Amino acid sequence: MSGYTPEEKLRLQQLRALRRRWLKDQELSPREPVLPPGWLGPVDAFWQRFLQPGGFWRHQVRPPLRRRGDTILETGEVMPPLADETSGHH
């Protein structure tokens, strides 16, 4: 007698179906993961508002210094490098 009995074949088929269903259940849908909205404490809420783009504080801080030869990431513009000075000092 070689091979599986009908009961063993049925059991193996059921196990394969269960494994396939389990694997399919492990895939995340576009709605997952669904997380509850987190409550921010007073300090975290302050920093959340403070760091938003276009906030008041960003208008008060001076823009960063741009050196020659640097690339501006937002526009891709390259600042031309300064000419070498050969004054002999240092």
TrEMBL record:
The keyword Transport applies. Keywords: Acetylation, Electron transport, Membrane, Mitochondrion, Mitochondrion inner membrane, Respiratory chain, Transmembrane, Transmembrane helix, Transport. Residues 68-90 are annotated as: Disordered. GO terms for biological process: mitochondrial electron transport, NADH to ubiquinone. It is found in: Mitochondrion inner membrane. It comes from the Eukaryota. It is a single-pass membrane protein. One of its GO terms (cellular component) is nucleoplasm. Complex I is composed of 45 different subunits. Accessory subunit of the mitochondrial membrane respiratory chain NADH dehydrogenase (Complex I), that is believed not to be involved in catalysis. Complex I functions in the transfer of electrons from NADH to the respiratory chain. The immediate electron acceptor for the enzyme is believed to be ubiquinone. Belongs to the complex I NDUFB6 subunit family. This is NADH dehydrogenase [ubiquinone] 1 beta subcomplex subunit 6. It comes from Crocodylus porosus (Saltwater crocodile). The lineage of its organism: Eukaryota, Metazoa, Chordata, Craniata, Vertebrata. The gene is NDUFB6.
